[in-house]
Design brief:
The complex is a heterodimer. Chain A has three domains: about 55 residues, no CATH class; about 325 residues, Cytochrome Bc1 Complex, Chain C; about 180 residues, no CATH class. Chain A contains 24 helices and six strands. In chain A, a hairpin with a 2-residue loop joins strand 4 and strand 5. Chain A is elongated and about 110 Å long. The model of chain A has no long low-confidence stretch (mean pLDDT about 90). The relative contact order of chain B is 0.08. By secondary structure, chain B is mostly helical. The mean pLDDT of chain B is about 85. Chain B is extended. The termini of chain B are far apart. Helix content of chain B is about 65%, strand content about 0%. Chain B is built from 18 helices and no strands. Classes of the chains: A alpha+beta, B mainly alpha. Chains A and B meet through helix 3, helix 8, helix 14 and strand 6 of A and helix 1 and helix 10 of B.
Amino acid sequence: MSVLPVPSILDDIKEKGVRKAVYETLDRTTERVTAGMNLQDIREALRGDKPSRRPNPRLTPHADGFWLHMRPSYYHTAVTGLYPTFRLGWLSTFFFAFEIITGLFLMIFYTPSPDVAYNDMKNILGNVPLGQLMRDLHRLGAEGMVTVVALHMLRTFVTGSYKKPRQFTWFTGVVLLLVTLFLSFSGYLLPWDQLAFWAVTIGTSMAEAAPPQVVGTNVNLLLRGAPDIGAGGLLRFYLLHVFALPLITTIFLGVHYYKVVLHGHSLPPREEEVGKDTAKRVPMDRRTYYIPDIMSNELAWIGMCGFILVLLCLWFFHAPLENHADPQVTPLHTTAPWYFLWLQGMLKLGDKVIMGVVLPTVIFGFLFVLPYVDLTPSRRYAHRRIALSLGMLTCLALVILTYMGTPYYGVSTAANDEVAQELIPMEGVGEIRAIPFDELQANLTATESSNVIWSVEVDAWKNSTTPVDLDANVLARDPNAIVIREDNLDQLEELYKENYPELWKAIEEYHHLLFDEFSDSLPNAVGYISISLTQSNLVRFYILMTWDVPQVDDEGEIVMNDDDEPKLLLNEEGNPIRAISGKQVYIHEESEWHAH
Amino acid sequence: METNQKQPFMEFPSVESRVIAGILFFTGTLILLAWAAINEPARMTEFTERFNGRSVETGAILFENNCSTCHGDEGYGIAGRAPALNNPFLLNYNFFAEHDRQIAALNDQIAAVDAEKEPEKKAELESQLALVEAQRQELYETLRYDYSEQWAALDAQLTALDSRIQEELAIPASLLGVEVQKRSDEISALEAELLPVTERITAAQSAGQTPDPADVQQQTDLQTQIDAKKAELSPYSTLNDERTPLLAKTGRYRALKDAHEQVKALRVQIAELESQLAALPEGDAGRADIESQLDTLQSQLSAQEKARDDALQAMIDAKDIIDFDPEAPSRMTQLKWNGTLEDLIYTTLLSGRPVSAAYWPAPMVAWSQDAGGPLRRDQVQNLTDYVLNWSREFTLQDVRRINQLAIEPSASAGPSVDAVCPDIESNPDSCVVDDIVVQISALEVMDSTAGQQAYTENACSGCHFSGSVIAPAPQGVFTRAQGYSQQDPATFPDARHYLVQSILYPNSFSSDGFTAGAMPTTFGKTLDLQTLANIVAYLESQDQ
C-alpha cells in the first residue's frame, strides 16, 4: 500500500529511509541524464580509476546519447596533445557556439531597419545591462572565429590531413571557411554606422563587377536589395547573418564532424606509414577515452576561453561604433574588414573584374579541389617540399597584399587633406579630439565677441581674386590664434608642454605633419589653431593651413629643384600661388574622446 | 613500422588539473561578470552622456551648415528673418523660479501661522515675503529695463565720433548741425540766385536767340560756387548723417536709463520714509508731514514708471531693442504644446512650420527626409540635441544678445474685439453685435485679401472648406447670409450682422445640418477689429 494514492518517492523513503531513497533516486536520474553513467561511474571517471563494471559504462553515452553520439568514444593518444591539432577545430566550434549565445542576446535588442538600427546600438550600449560586454564579446568572438578557422585550415594543409580519405572533409571545411568569412562580414553591416556602411558597400561592389554585366548587376541587386545599400540591403544582410549563414554552417558543421568521426583524426604524419591511413586502428594501449580525459579537457578549455574573452572585453577590447551611416559622405581611408584587406590590396593592382572577381574565384576554387588535384600520397613534411613552399609563399603574399589593402599603400590624397585627416579624422579620435576639455577651455584663443565662423571666412579667402595675406587676416580675427611655423616649436613647447600635455602633443603632431612628413607637398607652410567656446560646454577647434602650391609632374610626383626643394607653381605675375585649407571639429565636454 | 611512442604534450596533464583549472576559470568568469554588472549603471550613464556629447558635436556642424544663416551663428536669431533658439522662452528657463518658489513657501507658512497667537512670527514672515518680492521685482526690472551697458557702449561710440568730428572739422560736435545748416542755406541761396539766370538762358534758347554772354558767365560762376560749397558740405553732412541717428539712439537709451534710475532712487526714498513712518507711534505729529511727502513721492514714482515704459516703447518702436518681457510665457505654453521640449524641437525640424510663411520672409521648411527635406532622422536628433545644449541659466548679457523673438501666431495687431467691449464676459449685452458692425464699418479699409490670409491663419479654413461636412463652406456664405437677413431682419438687419455674430457668438445661431457648439467661442479674444473686418470682407466676397 503506497503512502499516497499513487506510487511516489515517499514509498521508497518509508521502505529504505530518507538517505538511501534520495541517493537512489538521484543515482537513477543521473544515469538517465547521462545516458548510461551513474554517480559511482562518474566518481570513478573523475578519479582516474578504471571502470568497475562491465559493459564499460563510459561508452554507453556515446552509443545511447545524442550529444556524445557525435563524438568518438576514444581517440588515438597521438592526436590528443596540443600538437598536431592545436585544438583549432575544437576552437572553431567553440566560437560558433559562443557567437550564437552572444548573438541571441544582441538579437533581442536589435531591429534591422536603417531608421532604428543605430539607435538600437545606442540602446544596447547605454541602456542594456551588460549590453556593451555582450557586443564586445560577440565582435571579439567573430574576429577570433575567423582567425581560428583560417589557422585550422592552414594546419590541415601543413599536416597534409586533407589527403585521402579526408578529401571531402577538407571540401566541407573550405565551405565552412567561406561561410565564416561571410558570417563575419554580414554582421559588419548591422550596427549601421559609417564603418559598417562603407565596408559593406566596398565589399558588395565587387559582386557588382562580376562578368557579364547582367550577372553583376543582378547579383548586386540581390545582395543589396536596391542599387545601393538601404533598408532592403540591411534586412537581407540581417537574415543572412542570423538565419541563412548559421543554418549553412550548422549543416556543413554536421557533415564535417561526421566525416571526422568516420575517418578518425588524422595522426601526426610521422606516426604512420606513407600512403596508409591508420587513424581508425588504434592499439589498446594508445587509446585515450573521451570520458573522462577529452571531456574534462574540453570543459577546462571552455572555462579558459570564456575567461580570457571576458577579461579582454572588460579592459582591452571594445567593438567600435562610428557615426550613423551616411550614404552622402564617404569617410577618407575607408577599408574592408581586415580579413578582406588582401582583396582590397589585389584590387589596387589591376582590373576590378579580374582582381575582385575572377582571381578570388580561382583561389577558392583551387582550395576546393586541392585534395582531388594533389594526389601525392605522403603526408610527411620532407616529402612535400613544393606544396609547403607554395603554402608559405601564399601566406607571404597574403601578408603583403593585406598591407597593400591598407590606406598606407597606393592611396593618393591631397597632402592638406591628409594632414587634416591625421589631426581630425572623419571617424575615430585623432590628435585633436583626444585633447581633454579642460585643456581646451584653458586655452581658448577667441573671446566670445571675436568668435569667428572660419568656414565662411576661408571660403571667402579661397574665392578671393586678390591674394590674401592670411597671417594678418587670421590674426585680425583671432589675435590669440596659435601660429605654427617651422621655427617656433620651441616657443610653443615652452607655452604648452608642461601644463597642457595633450594640446602640446597635437601641436607637435601638426608641426611634424606640416614640416616633416608633408614638407615637400606643402612648401613654406604655416599652420593656425583657433579655439573658441560656442556653447558653455562645446568648443570649436579650427585648424587652418596655408602653403605655396608646388609643381606636380604627370605622375603626380612633386618636381624638385637642384637644392632638393620643391619647385613652386607660379601665377601670371611670377609669384607663388598661396593655397588655404581648414577643418574644424566641435568638442563637447562630455564626449570624452580621449578616454575611449 | 616506425612509431613514436612519446606521450604528446598536454596543456593540462591530468584530470585533476583540468577539473581544478575548469573550476577556477568558471569562477573567475563569474567574478568578472559580477564585477561588470556592479559597474553597469555608472558605465551606462557615462556612455549615454558621451553619446549625447558627440551628438551635440555633430549637431553643431549641421547647425552651422543649415541653420545659422537664418537663426544666427550663435542661435540669437536674426532680426526680421528668424527667431532666436538660444532663448530662455524656448528653452523653458524661468528667471523667477527660485523667487516664486520662496514666495509660495512663505505664503504657505504665513497661512499656517495663527496671527492671534504668534503675531511676531507672522510679521517676521511677512517682512521676509516683502523682501523676496522686492528682489523678484528688482530682477524683473533689471531684465526689462536695464540697458545701461548698451547705453555705455553707444555713448562711447558717440564720444569717439564727436572727437573725430573735432579732429577732422575742428568744430565741436554740438555745432555740427549748425554748420551743416549754414552751408546748406548758402547753397540754397546760391541756387536761388542761379534759378532766374538759368531761366533767362533757357528762354533765350527756346526763342532761338543766343543767350546773353554775361548770363552764361554768371551761370558758370554760380555753378562753380555751388559745387565748391557742396564739396565743402560733404564731410560735414556725412558725419552729420552718421551722428544724427546715433545721437537719437543714444538719447532713447539714455531716457530709459535715466527713468529707470529715477524709479530706483524714488523707491529707495519711499522705503526710507516708510520706515521712518513705521518708527513713529500712532498719532505722532510728524506723521502727517511724512505721509504727505510719501504721497508726493508716490505720484512722482508712477510718473517716472510711465516715463520708463514710454521710453522702452520708443526704443522698441525704433527697433533699437526687442520687446523682451521676462515674464512672457514659454514657447511651449504659447503653442499649447503637450509634449516635451525635445519633442517640440524635433518635430518642428521634422516637418517644419509651413504656417510661418505668413509672418516670416521665408517659412521654416521641413528639414527631415520624411517630409522632403535634406536631413535624416538621426541628423534631426543631432540638431535637436545641439539646440537643447543651449539650456542654461540665462544672464542679462545673454538676453541682451537676442536679436529676434518668436512671433506668436495668434498675436493681434490691435486690441482684440473683446477689448473694444471690455465687459463682454460679465455682461454679454453690453456690447451688442450692432456696435461691432458699426465699428468695423467705420474702419478705413476692409481688406479681403488680408482677410483670406487671416482666414487661414486663424484656422477657419480647417473646418470651413469647400465640401466640408463639419461646417458650412465659405463659398456662397454671403448669399446665405443675405437670405438669413431677409428671414429675420430684426436679428440680422443685414448680412454683415449675421457674419459678425457667427464669428463672435457662434452658438447663438447654427446653420441647418451642422452640429451646434463645434466652433470655438474665443475669436472675440483673439481677433482684433481690423482682422475681423478683413475676414468679414473676405466672406462678403464669397457671394457666388
